[in-house]
Design goal:
With 491 residues, this protein is mostly helical. The chain has 24 helices and two strands. The radius of gyration is 23 Å and the shape is globular. The C terminus is likely disordered.
Length: 491
C-alpha cells in the first residue's frame, strides 16, 4: 500500500544533499570532478530508501529514473559535441580570429554592453543559449580577458544576453514549452513577456554600462597589439575563417536540428584547420606526412586536450580546450542529477514539498511569488530547467485559473523564473554546462548574471503592484494564434 510522505520526510533527501554539497566545498578543490556527483547519488539512494518505506517498488522508481535520464539525453549529446566543436574551432583559428578582429572593433568601456547585445542577437536568431555561449561566448570571453576584465564579469554579460534569446526566441524550446504548459499560444506568450523582459534587459544594460565605464581595467589589461601579434604569429588570421560561424548560424536559422548542426560546425572547423592552419597542426602533432598530421590533429582536438603556446603567456590561457573528454565530468554530473530528480519525483517527495506553497497563495502577488519559488526549487532539486517549467506549470495552472488570471500570466512567470534561474545552479544541467564551456565557476559568474537575477524579481514586482496582469474577463486581443517550430535552446 502506497503511503503519502510527510513534509519533513520529503525534505530529508534534500537536506542530506545540502549537507554533502556544503561539505564538498570545504574539503575538495574541484567539486565538479566527482564529489558533487557522488553526493547526488548518495542523496538519491537516501530518497530510494524513503520511497521504499512509502510503499513504492523498484520498478516504479527505476522507470522514473530512466525516463528522467532520457529527457536529459539530448542535452548530454549536445554537450559532448560542444566539446568537440570548441576543439576544432580553436585549431582552425576560428576563435582566435574572432578575438583578433574583435579587439579592433570593440571599445573597452563599451565591451560589456556590447557582449550582452551581441549574445542577445545571436541567441534570438538561433533560439539557442548553449550554442551562443559555446561559440560567440567563448570568443567574447577571450576578448574580455585581453581587455583585462575578470572572467566572471564577462561570463555574466555573455550569459545575460544568451538567456535573453533563450527566453524570447520563438525557436527556443523553453519559449514553446512554457505556453504549452500554461495553455496559451506562442506569440501571445512572447508579446506578453516583453512587459517584464524589456525593463529587466534595460536595467541589465545600464548596469553593464556602469561597470564598463567605472571598472579600473586599464592597469591590468593586456596590451591589445601584443595580443594580436601573438595570435597572428601562431595562426593564419584570414577573414575567410568567419565563414565557419556564419555557416553554422545560418543552418541553425534554417531549422537544421541541433545535433547535426553542431556536428557540421565541428567538422567544418576541422576542414578549415587542415586548409588554413598547417603549422598549428604540425606543432600540435609533430612530424609526419601532412595527411597523418591533419587526421591526428583534428581527431585530438575533437576528443582530447589541446594546448597551444604563443609568445605571450597571457594569450596561452585562451588557447586550450579539452574536447569531448573534458565534458565527461559534466555529463556525469547531469546523469547523477537526473537520477536524484527521478527518485524525488517517483516517491512523490517533490509534490509533497510544493503542495503547501500552492495552498497558501491567496493574492496575485503571492501566487506568482509561489510559482517563482517553486521553479527555483525544481531547478535546484531536479537539476533541469524543463522540470522547473513542466512541474510548476502543471501544479499552478488550476490556481491561476481560479484567480481569474489568463494563462499567459503563468507562462510568463514560468519563463521569468524557471528558464532564467537554471543557469545559476551549479549542479543544474544549464549551470554545469555553461561553467564547463566558459571555464568559469557558476558561483563566480552568478552575481554578474544581472538579467537572470532581475527577471524573477521583475515578474513578482509586476504581480504585487498589479501591473499588466491580464484577467480572464479582459477583452481578447486581436490577431490569429500561430505556432512555430521548436529549436533546442540549450545549444
Amino acid at each position: 500500500m502506497i503511503k503519502k510522505p510527510g513534509l519533513f520526510e520529503a525534505l530529508l533527501p534534500i537536506l542530506f544533499l545540502i549537507v554533502l554539497l556544503t561539505s564538498n566545498v570545504f574539503l575538495f578543490d574541484d567539486v565538479l570532478e566527482g564529489p558533487n556527483q557522488i553526493s547526488l547519488l548518495l542523496a538519491a539512494s537516501f530518497g530510494i530508501v524513503i520511497a521504499y518505506r512509502l510503499g513504492f517498488g523498484w520498478e516504479a522508481i527505476n522507470h522514473r529514473i530512466i525516463k528522467t535520464i532520457g529527457s536529459a539525453m539530448p542535452s548530454m549529446l549536445i554537450l559532448l559535441l560542444i566539446g568537440s566543436l570548441a576543439g576544432t574551432w580553436l585549431i582552425s583559428g576560428v576563435v582566435p580570429v574572432m578575438i583578433y578582429y574583435g579587439l579592433d572593433i570593440i571599445s573597452p568601456k563599451l565591451f560589456l554592453f556590447t557582449a550582452v547585445v551581441v549574445s542577445s542577437i545571436v541567441s534570438v536568431v538561433t533560439g539557442s543559449s548553449w550554442s551562443t555561449v559555446a561559440t560567440i561566448g567563448v570568443a567574447l570571453l577571450g576578448i574580455g580577458n585581453a581587455l583585462g576584465f575578470p572572467e566572471a564579469i564577462t561570463a555574466g554579460a555573455i550569459i545575460s544576453g544568451a538567456y535573453f534569446g533563450d527566453k524570447m526566441s520563438p525557436l527556443s524550446d523553453t519559449t514553446n514549452l512554457a505556453p504549452a504548459m500554461a495553455g496559451t499560444d506562442l506569440f501571445t506568450h512572447i508579446r506578453y513577456m516583453t512587459h517584464t523582459t524589456i525593463p529587466s534587459m534595460g536595467l541589465t544594460l545600464i548596469l553593464f554600462l556602469v561597470l564598463g565605464f567605472t571598472y579600473e581595467f586599464q592597469a591590468k589589461a593586456i596590451d591589445i597589439s601584443t595580443v594580436q601579434d601573438a595570435l597572428s604569429a601562431t595562426f593564419s588570421t584570414s577573414p575567410l575563417l568567419f565563414l565557419v560561424p556564419v555557416f553554422l548560424f545560418t543552418i541553425i536559422m534554417l531549422k537544421v536540428p541541433p545535433l547535426p548542426s553542431l556536428m557540421i560546425g565541428t567538422l567544418l572547423g576541422g576542414v578549415f584547420a587542415v586548409l588554413f592552419q598547417p603549422d598549428v597542426l604540425r606543432t600540435l602533432v609533430g612530424e609526419g606526412s601532412y595527411l597523418s598530421v591533419a587526421y591526428r590533429g583534428v581527431m585530438q582536438a575533437m576528443f582530447g586536450d589541446v594546448s597551444l603556446h604563443t609568445s605571450h603567456p597571457a594569450v596561452n590561457e585562451l588557447l586550450s580546450t579539452s574536447g569531448m573528454r573534458g565534458m565527461l565530468p559534466t555529463v556525469w554530473l547531469i546523469l547523477a542529477a537526473m537520477i536524484f530528480g527521478g527518485v524525488m519525483e517517483a516517491g512523490g517527495l517533490l509534490e509533497r514539498i510544493t503542495r503547501p506553497i500552492v495552498e497558501r497563495a491567496k493574492s496575485n502577488g503571492a501566487l506568482v511569488a509561489s510559482t517563482v519559488l517553486s521553479c527555483i526549487f525544481f531547478n535546484t532539486t531536479a537539476s533541469d530547467q524543463y522540470i522547473s517549467i513542466v512541474v510548476p506549470g502543471r501544479m499552478f495552472k488550476a490556481s491561476f485559473a481560479r484567480k481569474g488570471l489568463k494563462p499567459e500570466v503563468l507562462s510568463r512567470t514560468l519563463e521569468d523564473s524557471g528558464t532564467m534561474t537554471s543557469v545559476l545552479i551549479p549542479w543544474n544541467t544549464c549551470g554545469a554546462t555553461q561553467a564547463k564551456v566558459l571555464g568559469v565557476a557558476t558561483l563566480s559568474y552568478l552575481p554578474y548574471c544581472f538579467f537572470n537575477l532581475i527577471s524573477p524579481l521583475m515578474t513578482i514586482l509586476f504581480a504585487v503592484f498589479n501591473i499588466k496582469i491580464r484577467k480572464l474577463d479582459d477583452p481578447v486581443a486581436p490577431g490569429p494564434k500561430r505556432e512555430a517550430p521548436v529549436k533546442d535552446s540549450m545549444l
